[in-house]
Amino acid sequence: MMMLSAIILAAGESKRFDGNKLLYELDGKPLFSYLLDTIRMIPFDQMIVVSRFDAIKAYSLQHQMVYLHNGYPERGQSYSIHLGVRHADDDHHFMFFTADTPYISRSTIMALIQIAQQAPDAIICPSYQGELYSPTIFSRKFLPELLDIRGDRGGKGIIRRYMDRVILYEVESQKELMDIDYRSHLPTK
User: Secretion signal: which residues (predicted)?
Assistant: First the structure.
């Protein structure tokens, strides 16, 4: 049975948003909580939240998630990835989420996990009309490559390098995979 750690990247600087997007109130709840509420409904072997914000720390600990503090957000997304994979249990694969994706559904996450269980050496990505999105599952075999990522980058370089080992799961709605980078990405009232 494949063991899987959910690693939630929630330490970004929100430079394009003009304010802290993860703490932004969306319909009465902080943006980050939508994803974490969805993840809590899934039986991950381990849930790791990498952040630097007190509200996210409090939420994570209240819901029995492992909280890792990223005191160096200027090092980019790669630093959060390194913290997460180094803390994950030794035999676990990794499912990476960005905390600014409030619309991802439990059913899509479960479908990605099912695919990974059938192809444990692959990289599993959701896609919409051929474009790759997060969350992404990496086999533990990609740990050296994940630790080689530098700067404000995620795993897309690894995905491009190993396209022959990537399995795509096409979703019906692009909105489900959207991340909120700008205020214009927020729903209009």
Answer: none
Task: For residue 49, give Cα distances in angstroms to 46, 114, 136, 177.
Answer: 10, 22, 15, 19
Handedness of CA 82, 88, 92, 94 (dihedral sign): negative
Question: Six-digit token pair at 166?
Answer: 């990537």
Contacts of 4 (CB under 8 A, 6+ apart): 44, 45, 46, 92, 93, 94, 95, 113, 116, 137
- What the block records as the tokens of 154 is 């995620």
The pLDDT of residue 188 is above 60: no
Q: How many CB atoms lie within 10 A of CB 144?
A: 7
* Closest of 112, 106, 110 to residue 133, by C-alpha: 112
Contact 139, 122 (CB under 8 A): yes
Q: Quick one: tokens of 14?
A: 């929100």
Report domain extents, the chain.
Answer: 3-185
Question: Which residue in 24, 28, 17 sits closest to 53, CA to CA?
Answer: 24
- The confidence score (pLDDT) of residue 19 equals 56
Region of poorest pLDDT, from 95-99, 131-135, 148-152: 148-152
| DSSP designation for 27 | T
Give the global pTM.
Answer: 0.92
**Measured distance CA(9)–CA(7) in Å, rounded:** 6
Determine if residue 104 is left, alpha or beta; phi over 0 gives left, psi from -120 to 50 gives alpha, anything else beta. Answer: beta
The CATH architecture that domain 3-185 belongs to is Alpha-Beta Complex (3.90)
